[in-house]
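Below is how a single chain appears once it has passed through the pipeline. First comes the sequence as given, then the structure the pipeline wrote out for it. We keep one example in the README because the format questions we get most often are answered faster by looking than by reading.
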Amino acid sequence: MPRFIKKTSQKVGLPPGTLIHVGEKRTDKITISLMDYDEKQFQEKPIEDAEEAFPLKDEPTVTWINISGIPEVDLMEKIGKHFEIHSLTLEDILNTAQRPKMEDFDHYVYLVMKMLCLDKEQDAVHSEQVSLVLGPNFLISFQEQPGDVFDSIRERIRKSKGRIRKTGCDYLTYALMDSLVDKYFVILEHFGEKMEVLEEDLLDNPTREILESIHNMKREMIFLRKRVWPLREVIGSLTRGGSSLVRESTAVYLRDVYDHTIQVIDTIESFRDVLAGMLDIYLSTVSNKMNEVMKVLTIIATIFIPLTFLAGIYGMNFKYMPELEWRWGYFAVWSVMIAIFVMLLFYFRRKKWI
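Resulting structure:
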């Protein structure tokens, strides 16, 4: 349940813009990396303090500052003051329970997305908040912990592959968003393959373990939907010219990410429908098995009702029962019982009950 409900009670009563971390603290170490580039030159280095990157703010090059780990309040205040980031944005960055959203502050754009990773041992999806602050010639990204899905983008920047070194910060922002969305497809492929195996096992032998797996996957789909569904609004706002910092040439690529996001959402909805159908199949199969058992028991009981009736009659201790003195009485009763048994079996067979 903590994956679905985040505790935000520590912010109750505080004034807007109060900088306080809300959410799980995943690392105590803060790492900051800097990439500064244009078409002709490139530099990359880890830095101890974000202030080392401040002189690059007014340079014509693209400056990407990536901060892994939740920064301390004093560091956030320094960054906010130098890059003129609103206190409400700084507050949202420290609150890792945010839903994906986009806010345009004219001189910068604030984006919130979720980076998902798959834990194959637990067969569960873990979420990490990624905050992006897009400025005219700088991009600041905030992650909850080291490790991300941006290595391919860094490699493209280092080797000047494609058009990323020839474009601005808006294209870099697109590349990061596209990388995050591409990871969603990898996770959905894993669940799609698992669902096919589950469906085959469900038809062959429905067990409680399969039912538990279905419920776990339904929870994962709810978890994914909650983190992906708002993303369509975020990217849609950017593609509709919601910010002057996003050029039309980049908006074309953002529309492609929007299409991918819609595809991810449709896949999640399809998986939810399939899982609901699998749950119905499980319940129907178990019910049918129970009906088969009840049918067999009912047939057995029906056969023995007349036999029990005869046995009950001749088991009474009345003194005057003509058949008790008859020499062939015992064999006659057995013959009648067997005849009733055979006739009932024939009748059930004719009715196709057995």
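The two ends are 48 Å apart (CA to CA).

See the next section for the split statistics.
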